[in-house]
């Protein structure tokens, strides 16, 4: 791509309020097979604060595929001199203070493979307007601070599109000529156009009702394909739980008489919170025990809640501009995480969320795409729906919750919603509400919104026996990130406790520093300086500190724990998260030691402390199975890579493999007992207790799978038996994965019968593809290429792309990073094809290449070659251009 054609960044500092407001938006869609006509009637008014003399031009956003059919101002057709069409903008040079603008555009949704704007998924029409999709439907002020009242008429063939939906309430309907019909929808709430939605299709409706706390009855309607009607029950109950939860925890009620959810097969993300008409990826709404894993059920619960919670945190109070995305996403992720914690096991949920953050967000934050949760610039907004904005954003909100306390946080939220209802606001407005409601000073805390990078706490402790005082010394730093060499110290809460060598909690009496809360055995202190100490008195022997309990801040901590310290914390810490964390630290220490041995060519060995810890976990049947399952999982390869400079993937893989195989060998009878103890045959329930038992059982089976032929194939037979007899997808797919990933003799047989059984269940086929794509066996890439050849693979369906290409590049690190470079070459070839179809998905899929600096030299060279090949493409979307050019900068 030539430099003068390179897309240019947009900067937060350039933000200006709009020159015009759109008070009313009336839309009429005429859907046909070959084209769609969109008639829009906009009631426009100059913004008196920005454009008092209404002498500024009106500049509307459009897209390259828009065909302008007609344009009228106050019913008079404009001539070519009255307006300008350039760079996808429609500019009207002279405007009155108030006027009515009528525009007709022609679009071709059936050719829209980008899945943004209006497009077709299977036979149905649907929309995705966030972030900037609405401009591909009609010319508009496509920015979130322009909020308008929408009325929409959808018109289509009645037989093929019996269901016609848009936001708000249905207010009229009728027949039209040639077997067509129409429905008119009216949304009483003003909203930015990114929340607009339209659906037309032949869909079944599964209905229910919910009565709000104040007694209003709301119709809940789930629109799905005929054969999926039996897969809505779980999402419906999750939705009702979420509605009750938001009333109880935040005092927020739903505000329309109808709440609709539509399931579509082709979708770029998980789901979209369009006002009153959420559109969901089928994978995030459909659930049935026979076709959905436990992880799938939990994802459905979380995403259903997430989109519902957006009704307040996102829709009623929205973002001023896209730099503020974390205002709604970070906050809403925090809300859905807390909801899921309340529905299931809080500690397990926290472990999962932190593990995800450390593996993915920490990697992003140390790579070329690192950005603050409120970015200062972007080239393509779609690239900023990141784990930083979402998950780190949620951690930042969580820290405010910790600093303000639950009641203070609720007061701050009440003030925020009350003060800003119906407005488009900024993260500063959110912080201000929190400060005003709590007499908090968050000025230093705000660096979390401005500075990228994961802060590092280097911690040293010191015990003074004569004074009976114990001190913790903390050095805070943050590595440079693109455009930010030096960082100011962050302000963060550290929740901590001290244990004596017997594992008992010690009474905490701070000599210096301030605790913002303490219950004697646990305190929350604030870290705000580059270098800081906390001293505790009346400590009669050197304790083991338990720091950052519950992961109270998104930072990396380094402290010299001995293996026995970690074993103590693993067993005795009152904080469940830190018990798990100590186990992970211990495992990491052992992994790193063996990695050093492997590099030297020395023999590998299994650490005695680790073996002891695992033995204790397996022997104690009083422990929570879900927690044991989590503690039995070694840190993932991706997490080890994130923590290792110039990582050697082969060594990481083989050392991890070695430790798991050794544990399996030495603890085989225990793993077997744990398997049998947790193998229930009763009715499938996706609740915390049953999910925990299945997780532990399948973790045990996974370890047994490492035995390969060493136990005469007995463990493979056990897996095959589970595969054949499973009554639910969790057990069936776990067993299939074990057979395939260990290259068991039954693997092909199992893959074939699985496909035969489930070929008509698209989401199960995704599981089948994913298991093969993530397999560490040698020929995995050939298998992936072969699977791409024919149905069921579809390059135009993001779920299929993620299941096959995504799983290979992100979950199959030994094969993707193979020293032949074949994996990298494969990815860049797919990216080039995909970029022409769906740039948003292509840019996301390029993620693994951006991490090139994390790997050893040989791999760096190979990865760079592919990035440069991409950079040299004659045509590249702004999406992929941004990722590639920043990676090479
Ligand atoms: N707002 C959506 C959510 O987090 C995100 C989303 C859905 C999205 N589809 C998208 C973002 C397409 C960008 C493009 O719930
Ligand atoms: Zn969201």
Task: Provide a compact summary of the structure.
Helices cover 40% and strands 20% of the residues. Zinc ion is lined by residues 306, 310, 329, 332.
Structure explained in plain terms:
- Helix 4 (346-365) crosses helix 5 and helix 18 packs antiparallel against helix 19.
- Helices cover 40% and strands 20% of the residues.
- The protein contains 27 helices and 32 strands.
- With 889 residues, it is an alpha+beta fold.
- The protein is globular, with a radius of gyration of 28 Å.
Spans of at least 5 consecutive residues whose pLDDT stays below 50 are none
Amino- and carboxy-terminal Cα gap: 15 Å
- The best one-word shape is globular
Give a short account of the largest sheet: 8 strands, mixed
Percent in strands? 15-25%
Report the structural category: alpha+beta
- Sheet with most strands: strand arrangement: 6-5-9-3-2-12-15-14
Mean pLDDT metric: 97
Count of helices? 27
Helical residue percent? 40-55%
Number of distinct beta strands: 32
Give me the Rg, rounded: 28 Å
Bound molecules: tryptophan, zinc ion
Topology record:
Layout: E1 10-11, E2 20-31, E3 36-46, E4 58-61, E5 67-73, E6 76-77, E7 83-86, E8 89-92, E9 98-107, E10 117-121, E11 124-128, E12 149-157, E13 163-166, E14 169-176, E15 180-186, E16 198-201, E17 204-211, E18 217-224, H1 233-250, E19 258-264, E20 271-272, E21 277-281, H2 294-309, E22 318-319, H3 325-343, H4 346-365, E23 377-378, H5 387-420, E24 424-425, H6 427-438, H7 447-450, E25 456-464, E26 469-477, E27 492-499, E28 515-518, E29 523-527, E30 531-536, E31 544-546, E32 556-559, H8 563-572, H9 576-600, H10 608-619, H11 625-632, H12 637-642, H13 649-666, H14 668-677, H15 688-705, H16 714-725, H17 729-741, H18 747-758, H19 762-773, H20 780-789, H21 798-811, H22 813-816, H23 822-837, H24 839-845, H25 847-850, H26 857-871, H27 878-888
Parallel strand pairs: 2-12, 18-19, 19-21, 22-24, 25-32
Antiparallel strand pairs: 1-23, 2-3, 3-9, 4-8, 5-6, 5-9, 7-8, 10-11, 11-16, 12-15, 13-16, 14-15, 17-18, 20-21, 25-26, 26-30, 27-29, 27-31, 28-29
Helix pairs in contact: 1-2, 2-3, 3-4, 3-5, 4-5, 4-9, 5-6, 8-9, 9-13, 11-15, 14-15, 15-17, 16-17, 17-18, 17-19, 18-19, 19-21, 23-24, 23-26, 24-27, 26-27
Bound molecules: tryptophan and zinc ion.
């Amino acid at each position: 791509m030539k430099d003068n054609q390179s897309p240019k960044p947009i900067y937060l500092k350039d933000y200006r309020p709009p020159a015009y407001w759109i008070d009313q938006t009336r839309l009429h869609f005429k859907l046909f097979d070959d084209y769609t006509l969109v008639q829009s009637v906009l009631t426009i008014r100059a913004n008196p604060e920005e454009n008092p003399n209404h002498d500024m031009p009106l500049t509307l956003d459009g897209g390259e595929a828009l065909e302008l059919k007609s344009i009228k101002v106050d019913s008079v057709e404009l001539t070519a001199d009255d307006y300008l069409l350039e760079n996808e903008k429609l500019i009207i040079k002279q405007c009155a203070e108030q006027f009515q603008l009528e525009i007709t555009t022609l679009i071709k949704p059936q050719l829209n493979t980008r899945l943004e704007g209006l497009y077709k998924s299977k036979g149905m029409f649907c929309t995705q307007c966030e972030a900037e999709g609405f401009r591909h439907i009609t010319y508009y002020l496509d920015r979130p601070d322009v909020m308008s009242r929408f009325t929409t008429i959808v018109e289509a063939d009645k037989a093929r599109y019996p269901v016609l939906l848009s936001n708000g309430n249905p207010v009229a309907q009728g027949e039209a000529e040639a077997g067509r019909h129409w429905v008119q929808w009216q949304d009483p709430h003003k909203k930015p156009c990114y929340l607009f939605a339209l659906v037309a299709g032949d869909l079944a409706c599964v209905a229910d009702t919910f009565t709000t706390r104040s007694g209003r009855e709301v119709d809940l309607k789930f629109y799905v394909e005929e054969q999926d009607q039996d897969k809505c029950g779980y999402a419906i109950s999750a939705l009702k739980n979420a509605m009750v939860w938001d009333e109880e925890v935040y005092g927020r009620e739903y505000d329309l008489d109808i709440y609709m959810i539509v399931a579509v097969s082709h979708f770029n993300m998980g789901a979209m919170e369009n006002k009153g008409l959420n559109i969901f990826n089928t994978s995030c709404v459909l659930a049935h025990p026979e076709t959905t894993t436990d992880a799938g059920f939990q994802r459905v619960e979380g995403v259903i809640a997430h989109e519902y919670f957006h009704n307040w945190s996102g829709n009623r109070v929205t973002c001023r501009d896209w730099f503020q995305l974390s205002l709604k996403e970070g906050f809403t992720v925090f809300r859905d995480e807390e909801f899921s914690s309340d529905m299931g096991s809080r500690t397990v949920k926290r472990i999962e969320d932190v593990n995800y953050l450390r593996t993915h967000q920490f990697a992003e934050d140390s790579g070329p795409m690192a950005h603050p949760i409120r970015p200062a610039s972007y080239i393509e907004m779609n690239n900023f729906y990141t784990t930083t904005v979402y998950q780190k954003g949620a951690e930042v909100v969580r820290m405010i919750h910790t600093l303000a306390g639950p009641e203070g946080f609720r007061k701050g939220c009440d003030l925020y919603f009350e003060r800003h209802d119906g407005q488009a606001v900024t993260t500063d407005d959110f912080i201000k509400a929190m400060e005003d409601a709590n007499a908090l000073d968050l000025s230093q805390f705000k660096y979390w919104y401005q500075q990228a990078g994961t802060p590092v706490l280097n911690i040293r402790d010191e015990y003074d026996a004569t004074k009976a005082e114990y001190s913790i010394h903390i050095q805070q730093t943050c590595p440079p990130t693109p455009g930010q060499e030096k960082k100011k110290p962050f302000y963060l809460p550290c929740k901590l406790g001290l244990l004596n060598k017997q594992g008992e909690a010690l009474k905490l009496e701070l000599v210096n520093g301030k605790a913002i809360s303490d219950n004697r055995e646990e305190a929350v202190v604030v870290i705000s300086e580059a270098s800081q100490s906390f001293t505790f008195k009346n400590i009669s022997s050197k304790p083991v500190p338990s720091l950052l309990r519950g992961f109270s801040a998104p930072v990396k901590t380094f402290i010299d724990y001995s293996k026995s310290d970690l074993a103590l914390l693993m067993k005795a810490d009152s904080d469940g998260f830190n018990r798990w964390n100590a186990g992970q630290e211990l495992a990491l220490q052992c992994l790193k030691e063996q990695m050093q041995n492997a590099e030297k060519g020395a023999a590998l060995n299994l650490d005695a402390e680790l073996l002891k810890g695992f033995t204790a976990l397996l022997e104690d049947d009083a422990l929570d199975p879900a927690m044991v399952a989590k503690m039995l999982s070694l840190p993932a390869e991706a997490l080890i890579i994130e923590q290792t400079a110039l990582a050697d993937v082969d060594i990481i893989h083989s050392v991890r493999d070695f430790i798991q195989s050794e544990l399996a060998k030495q603890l085989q009878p225990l793993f077997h007992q744990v398997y049998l103890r947790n193998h229930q045959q009763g009715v499938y329930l996706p609740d915390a207790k049953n999910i925990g038992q299945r997780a532990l059982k399948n973790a045990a089976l996974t370890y047994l799978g490492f035995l390969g032929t060493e136990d005469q194939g007995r463990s493979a037979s056990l897996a095959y038996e589970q595969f054949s007899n499973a009554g639910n997808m969790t057990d069936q797919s776990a067993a299939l994965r074990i057979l395939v990933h260990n290259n068991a003799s039954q693997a092909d047989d199992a893959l074939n019968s699985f496909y035969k059984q489930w070929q008509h269940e698209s989401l199960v086929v995704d599981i089948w593809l994913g298991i093969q794509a993530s397999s560490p066996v040698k020929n995995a890439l050939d298998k992936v290429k072969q699977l791409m050849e024919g149905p069921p693979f579809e390059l135009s369906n993001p779920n299929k792309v993620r299941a096959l290409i995504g799983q290979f590049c992100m979950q199959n690190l030994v094969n993707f990073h193979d020293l032949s470079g074949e994996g990298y070459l494969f990815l860049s070839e797919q990216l080039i094809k995909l970029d022409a179809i769906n740039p948003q998905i292509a840019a996301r899929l390029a993620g693994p290449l951006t991490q090139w600096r994390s790997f050893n030299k040989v791999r760096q060279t190979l990865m760079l070659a592919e990035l440069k090949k991409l950079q040299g493409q004659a045509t590249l979307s702004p999406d992929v251009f941004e990722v590639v050019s920043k990676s090479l900068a």
